[in-house]
Amino acid sequence: MGAQYSLWVERGRLMLRQRRLGTLTLIPTYPGGFLTSGFYLSFTDGPDGTVDGFTASTARAWKVRFDRQ
C-alpha cells in the first residue's frame, strides 16, 4: 500500500498524521481502540506486550493491518 502514519501524544491527546488526511485527533472508544474522521483504529500487541501495529477500519474496508516500523 505504501501508506505511512505518524502517531504521537500532544497535550494528553493521541494524534495521527497521514499525507492525505492531514493531522487528526484520535478519540478513545475502548482500551486500545480509537475513532477519528470516519474510521476506527485498534492497536495490536506483539508477543512481548509492546504495540506492534494497528488495524484501521472504515465502512468500506475492515481491519486493514499496518505494522510498526
Layout of secondary structure:
Layout: E1 5-10, E2 13-18, E3 22-25, E4 27-30, E5 33-36, E6 39-45, E7 51-57, E8 64-67
Brief summary:
The chain is an all-beta fold and 69 residues long. The protein has no helices and 8 strands.
Give an overview in words:
With 69 residues, the protein is mainly beta. Helix content is 0%, strand content 61%. The chain has strands at 5-10, 13-18, 22-25, 27-30, 33-36, 39-45, 51-57, 64-67. The strands form two sheets. The protein has a five-stranded antiparallel β-sheet, with no helix packed on it. The model has no long low-confidence stretch (mean pLDDT 92).
Write out key terms for the chains shown:
globular, mainly beta, five-stranded antiparallel beta sheet, about 70 residues, about 60% strand, three-stranded antiparallel beta sheet, single chain
Q: How are the strands of the largest sheet arranged?
A: 4-5-6-7-8
The domain tally reads 1
Order of helices and strands: EEEEEEEE
Largest beta-sheet details:
5 strands, antiparallel
Low-confidence stretches: none
Shape: globular
Q: Identify the quaternary structure here.
A: single chain
Question: Average pLDDT, to the nearest integer?
Answer: 92
Task: Report the C-alpha radius of gyration, rounded.
Answer: 12 Å
Number of strands: 8
Q: Given the structure, what is the number of helices?
A: 0
Structural class: mainly beta
Span between N and C termini? Answer: 14 Å
- How large is the share of residues in beta strands? over 45%
